[in-house]
Amino acid sequence: MKTASIAIAVTTTLLASTNVFAFETTVKVISVTPAREIVNEPYQSCQPDYERAAPNAPAQQNCRETDHYDVKLMYTVVYEYQGQRFSAKLPYDPGNELKVNVSVTPK
């Protein structure tokens, strides 16, 4: 009995300390709602700075972050797992079924 308790405690500790899913299953999709979203995908823009460079030295880079806005199509998906409804925002339309990872986390 003591060995079983220790094994359960070690397993519970490992599951709580790692983010490993227990299993994968397929769930029924209830609804899919497409929506366009404006998404900012900033990038770093660099240009050589010749004015501040020392003589006979390569120019230093003058860098700044530049915003780049894009319109993306996202899908709000409502699905059902064991009688409960959940929603997720996905970059694709999953169709009638969706694969999900199911894990258990102790409180």
Folded structure, characterized:
- By secondary structure, this protein is mainly β.
- It has one domain.
- 15% of the residues lie in helices and 54% in strands.
- The chain is built from 1 helix and 6 strands, in the order αββββββ.
- The strands form 2 sheets. A 4-stranded antiparallel β-sheet has the order 5-4-1-6, with no helix packed on it. A two-stranded antiparallel ribbon has the order 2-3.
- A hairpin with a 2-residue loop joins strand 4 (69-81) and strand 5 (84-90).
- The radius of gyration is 25 Å and the shape is elongated.
Give the low-confidence spans: 1-16
Sequence of strands across the biggest β-sheet: 5-4-1-6
Sheet bearing the most strands, described?
A: 4 strands, antiparallel
The overall number of domains is 1
Q: How many strands?
A: 6
- How many helices does DSSP assign? 1
Short description:
This protein has 107 residues and is mostly beta strands. It has one helix spanning 2-17, and strands at residues 23-40, 43-49, 60-66, 69-81, 84-90, 97-102.
